Amino acid sequence: MSRSAPLSSITRLDQNTRRARAVVHGQTVYLAGHTAADRSQDAAGQTRQVLQALEDLLAQAGSDKRHLLDVTIWLSSMDDFEAMNRVYDAWIVPGHAPARRCAAMMLAAPEIRVEISAIAAV
C-alpha cells in the first residue's frame, strides 16, 4: 500500500492527552470541534469566537479559510440557526464556500450554543 505522506509528517497543534486542536497530515489540516471561550455570549457571539479560533489554527497550520474543504456545525438548538448563519455567511470568503452540514444536538455543556469543526487544504 502506498501513502502520499509518511506518518512522520503528522503535526499536532495545541494537543493534550485527549485531543489536538488541529492535525496536519500531508496537504490537509483537520480542525477539532471548537466552542467559544466566553460561553455567556449569544449564538452569534459564540460563532464569531469559534470562527476566529478556527482561522487562527488554520494560520498556524499554514492555511486559511479560503482553503476550507468541509465544515460541520452543531447547534444546541436550531433556534440559533439564523443568528449563526449571519455570522458564518459574512465570514466565508465569496467563491470559496466549503461543503457544510449543520445539525442540532446536545453539546458538552448547557451554555455551549455552537460547536464547529472543519477540514482544509494546506
TrEMBL record:
<keyword id="KW-0560">Oxidoreductase</keyword>
<dbReference type="Pfam" id="PF01042">
    <property type="entry name" value="Ribonuc_L-PSP"/>
</dbReference>
<dbReference type="GO" id="GO:0016491">
    <property type="term" value="F:oxidoreductase activity"/>
</dbReference>
<dbReference type="InterPro" id="IPR035959">
    <property type="entry name" value="RutC-like_sf"/>
</dbReference>
<dbReference type="InterPro" id="IPR035709">
    <property type="entry name" value="YoaB-like"/>
</dbReference>
<dbReference type="InterPro" id="IPR006175">
    <property type="entry name" value="YjgF/YER057c/UK114"/>
</dbReference>
<protein>
    <submittedName>
        <fullName>Translation initiation inhibitor</fullName>
        <ecNumber>1.-.-.-</ecNumber>
    </submittedName>
</protein>
